Amino acid sequence: MVSGPSLDEQAYVRGGETQTAVKILVVGHFAVGKTTFIGSISEISPLSTEETMTRAGEAIDDLKGVQSKTTTTVAMDFGRLTVSERVVLYLFGTPGQQRFVQMWEDMARGALGALVLVDPERLADSFAVIDLIEQYGLDYAIAVNHFDGSPLRDERALREALDLLDDTPVVTCDARDERSSAEALITLVRYLMDRAR
User: Fold this and answer.
1) pLDDT tens digits, 85-128
2) Residues 145, 85: Cα–Cα separation, whole Å
3) Helices (H), the chain
4) Beta partners for residue 36, in sequence order
5) Aminoacyl-tRNA synthetase: present as a keyword of the record (predicted)?
6) Rounded to an integer, what distance in angstroms lies between the CA atom of residue 150 and that of residue 174?
7) Which candidate, 89, 93, 80, places its Cα nearest to that of 29?
8) Closest CA to 106 of 116, 95, 117, 118
9) At what angle do helices 178-196 and 34-41 cross, to 10 degrees?
10) Parallel, antiparallel, or unpaired: how do β-strands 139-145 and 47-52 relate?
11) Pair 32, 147: CB distance under 8 Å
């Protein structure tokens, strides 16, 4: 288990003012929209390690429902979002494929929590991701990435399908939309702050 720091352990000085740096993981299964999410919300040009998918990867990665996907994250995505004068989020997007799961432990170190992106059409793909986040002892919120044409899901049914605790936040977002992505992150940060009290 990787233990995370508390909010007050994250303080640093920037421009003469004390700010709190918060490391957040953006996680989810393969092709759920993590790179898009960080790209839509980061106030800096996001660092992305997207590479063209190869024929070898096609044999391993399940492209069902995402046949048009041509690139994949091979290391991580990174972005930054200032949510107030005092709080800055550093966003680390993890690769979604099982073969990259060994990187997660290093990425989880020092993280305060995780935003788990979920595709409502592929809920079963999220089970292993949630198990891993719980194994690392990270608090998390669920962000259901609402894709074009997909029906909105009932929150109670989602909670039951994902076997979530009653207090685990569940929000719907569009990873392509800055405002929607920001609202999902704010939900997570509020939850983390409530848990720290």
Assistant:
1) 888 899 999 876 565 667 777 888 899 999 999 998 889 999 99
2) 28
3) 34-41, 55-58, 103-108, 127-135, 155-162, 178-196
4) none
5) no
6) 12
7) 93
8) 95
9) 90
10) unpaired
11) no
CA distance 99 to 45: 27
Nearest-angstrom CA–CA distance, 121 and 171: 16
In whole angstroms, give the CA distance from residue 144 to residue 146: 6
Pairing of strands 17-28, 113-118: parallel
Whether the per-residue pLDDT at 172 is higher than 60: the answer is: yes
Tell which wins on pLDDT, 14 or 82. Answer: 82
What band does 152 get if pLDDT is binned at 50, 70 and 90?
confident
Return d(Cα 68, Cα 71) in angstroms, integer: 9
Distance CA 78, CA 26 (A): 9
Position 107, amino acid = M
Question: In this structure, what token pair is assigned to residue 177?
Answer: 């939309």
The residue type of 62 is: D
Residue 77 to residue 33: CA distance in whole angstroms: 11
Q: How far is CA 17 from CA 33, 80, 82, in A?
A: 34, 18, 13
Tokens 């048009």 label which residue? 68
